[in-house]
Design a protein that fits this description.
heterodimer, A: alpha+beta, 7-stranded mixed beta sheet, 40 strands, globular, B: alpha/beta, 9-stranded mixed beta sheet, 7 helices, about 20% strand
Amino acid sequence: MAHRLEIALRPELFDAEGDGIRRKAKDYLGIELHSVRCIHVITIDANLTANQLNTIQTEIFTNPVTQLSSHNPLDIAFDWTVWVGFRPGVRDNPGSTAVEAVEDILDIKFASGEAIYTSKRYCLKGKDLDFKDVNTIAGELLANDIIQQWKIFSNDEWDPITGTGLIIPKVILNHTPKVTTISVHSDLSLKRISDERGLALNPADIPFIRSYFMDKKVRAGRAVKGLSDPTDVELEYISQARSDHCNHNTFRGLFRYRDLETGETDVMDNGGAITGIVGVYRDPMGTGKGSRLVMGGYGFCVGPRDYNGALRPHLHPRRLLDGVIEGVRDGGNKSGIPTTFGQVLFDHGYLGKCLVFVTALGMMPARIREKPAEQKKTTPGDLVIMCGGRVGKDGIHGVTASSETFSEHTPAGHVQIGDPYTQKKMHDFLLDARDEGLIQFVTDNGGGGLSSSVGESARFSNGCEIQLEKVPLKYEGLDQWEIWISESQERMTVAVRPEDLERFLALSKMHAVESTVIGRYTDSGKLYITYNGSACAYIDMDLTTSGFPQWEFDAEWLPPERRGLHEPVLKPPGNYRMVLLDMLSRPDICSKEWISRQYDHEVQGTSVIKPLVGAERDVSGDAAVIRPILSSSRGLAFAQALLPAYSAIDTYHMTGCTIDEAVRRLVAVGADFDQIGGVDNFCWPNIQFHPQNNPDGKLKAAKLVRSCRALREICLAYEIPLLSGKDSMYVDGHLQGRYKETHKVSALETLQFSATSIVRNINKCITMDSKVEGDLVYILGATRNELGGSEYYAHLGYVGLNVPEVVPEVFIPLYRELGKAMDDEIVASAHGIYRGGLGVHLALVAMGGNLGMKIDLGAVPVDQTNRDDVVLFSESAGRFIVTIDPRNRETFEQILSGLSFACIGAVTGDNRFVIKGIDGKHLVDVSVNVLKIAWKKPFGELI
Amino acid sequence: MNPVKALVLTGYGLNCDHETAYALELAGAVAHRVHINSLIDGTVAITDFQILVFGGGFSWGDDHGAGVVQAVRMKTNLGDKILKFIDVGNLVLGICNGFQTLVNLGLLPGFDHDYTKRSVALTFNDCGNFRDQWVTLKVVPTASCIFTAGLDVLELPVRHGEGKFYAEEAILYRLVEENQVVLQYALPDGSPAERDFPFNPNGSVHDIAGICDPSGRIFGLMPHPEAFNHWTNHPDWPRIKEKKKRAQENTEFVLTPGIRLFQNAVRYIQNK
């Protein structure tokens, strides 16, 4: 029998969660609420006695100091009440921990099928609220209809005894698992089945798949195992292994590149091989024999937070951003990994699909038990073990869904809820197991689930035998193919030698992590899967890596001027003060402190340079620095950059500038220029030309080719090894407009470049804030007429043409010499000049120090420009702002001699930010406080 | 002299164990990171230690109230052993999630030596969100706490979503009267924050950031002393360093206040 328990804060206590909802209802939806109180609902679907229920009510679920609870609905006044709970099958993390606690305190074990479910009831009070208002609040604020369901009750219809009723979102499938054999008698029929099942097979792959299963020798081998035509398990496996997400077909593709102006043609094979090779070693926990995670970063690209246009994204960008922030917060904080660096960009192109980049850095000892820690392999006889969470329907067809654009047919069921608690336990366990030498191979179950992790790990031994019935399930009734490809989270696949099994399982039990042997590695050359003894897959190991046709793309490049881009006809502004303040208030530039503060950036005790620095600890640092080995004075610096706006002009320079920005960010905090490693994350719209659906596909393909070229050339010039990378190739969405017409919205071609380097002595790190009155302000690097794609042009409604370019041979000596000055400890502050240009970044240095600044634009080294607006807002790469103690002037200038730099002013104590133009006239005279108010205006109220 | 042995709990989503152990080692103790289950199954004996640390983290995901499920597991499986550990004069420290666990276990406030009664709580921040920031803390001069001896005003980071200290008036009165309030959130100059956000980051009543039991040997606090284990942890260190350089002062830094707090514990055991 099921029982319900309602829990709420005592009425005299402030309900912060409820008040947050009240505020959002007003700010986001314009609905005035008088008050909101939250009730936590625990639904216990288990046979417990009245005594047992009483024990868990008082000992676990009710805090005697702050809470009230009742098995009957709590009597909290409302005009409307909204119940929100998970849909069946959605991961309910608090429900699972509740079971653990109940089992512990009562010393019982829940029977199969028994569970605890958590949900919430909100009590809303407000004048003249009607059902429509409440339904809007429920759908837009309280629940996400993909994973949650809700019920609304008015005060009149509420029954104080039955309340919401007993709602048990239990998954009942009533389904006997069945393997289906699929006929492959023609290409057409296989294509049809691929469409029906959502396999997303590439049409070009279909004849090859058919020929394999028609092959006489193959058929003879299969007949011995009782198989004939392919099974659904096999086709799903091939579909996953061949998906662009897992196999990087686009990056391994053949590009026929043609420059329509110069006539230059080129066939690029394996154009992105640098990126492609990372397919197997992606996740630090699954890298080598496993790494300890030491920090995380984020990059969010979303639609404008205040979007009020005609398109109707499934979730408003503001809501989406709230959810993304929350997801990364819970994921990072609960994993005990400091989130030290991040960026947020807003653009209409991300209304179709938003981008969420998350980065992780891990560390491993060089050797474990005398063996190199980075090397791993599977050997015939090793056991295949699945660790961590259980398998359910969640995540089925996640890979193929992200390999195709969203449509109304995308199944909601592919949504997964992360469970950082389970993952943290597994992380701790795997590191202990690694240090005891118990792990031969480890890899994560990400895209493609077991099909991918087992498939990839079995390549080393050249075969495996899997018994699918051994895989622990969340609930009964999954088909074999579903078990094989489910992407249920927080699972790793580990290879363990039979002689280590006992110890491995004992350690697993101690860490309260579930580990299950599901098969063994062989050298048979076959992937052999059975279910209760019957074969459901018997495929050659090398099938998915050999013989499939390469993807092909036509790439046609038209230089920007041929596409009609040009510089705007623009005379300099008359009111620079207002331009500067408005630039500081632009969403991509303004303060986003509210996000940084929600992320624990100090756990592990390693923090050296925090995300927010300066006198008032509120201005973003150039890069994060941590001291991952607590007893060492060496550190790791980390930064990333995103400059998609330049893609509108030329992705070659977008890529160069993005890499350069990430590098300069590291240099600015004192990291070693010669030990930088990089990671490239490509997010691109679909590049396959289609006359109706993707008419500009050839240009998008050419943009990818040019981006990959720049990645190669600039990284070679800077001598940056690419440590890892990732590609998401379908950043397009279809959104409904005002008249129910549908628009395809493609994102800007986006590359996030992450860079990390070693800091030789953390005690010499530098922050960007000006430090002392009287210090000299220098600019390093030349400013060119490069406003194309700039924030300034965007602010005025232009794209322009003169996109910033990277000149490695000019920049590199400067970066090295600045590093030398920092090593000599004669630099007081250093800050790269990034998006927004010199004006914006001088303002940031002044705001960081909370000190004034006097600047003479006439002293700035320029190249082919003599306009104040160009000098202030050009985004030329390769530049820094540096402040130094005047006593160090000579030494500093000597170090930089021969390079492009100049002293352009001084730090002042009067809190005034003053800029003199090239002709000597005052352009800006404003207090630093006013600058900061403008910079904090857009999001300053958010917490 | 026998080394002072400190036990730092790990497992089930706890996560500050490495740096807490490191801080204890800097303070002169021998620190062991021990999984909760190793303590329960007897692989490790609590009686081998003199300092027990409930560290920070998200035990059991902080579902059902921060520290609640951890308290249930510890009480159910180790309740008597912990009471005995206290009884023989040892030290218990709870940091953040550990503080939340101590109040749910009833080890704090421990009025009348009843170490099982829950009478204070740490609940959701008034600001409605998790928050990472450095705070100024004032040590209550009359506090009878072993850990804060010799400290007056110090800065430490807070990183929590449920750190608002709450208790009924009568309980608060007793905490103050019996010198059990140890740390209070303060303005940068050390004067009381008087619940002014963000100086008091969570809305704690009476600005309470940390309390101890009547003996002063059990101490719980929301801020993280172990995260101030090196002078470069402090958010202002590059500014402080630059100003010291200008004044031609030594830029070598001494032991941080965070480590001094652990040092007090180690010295107490050494001198016992």
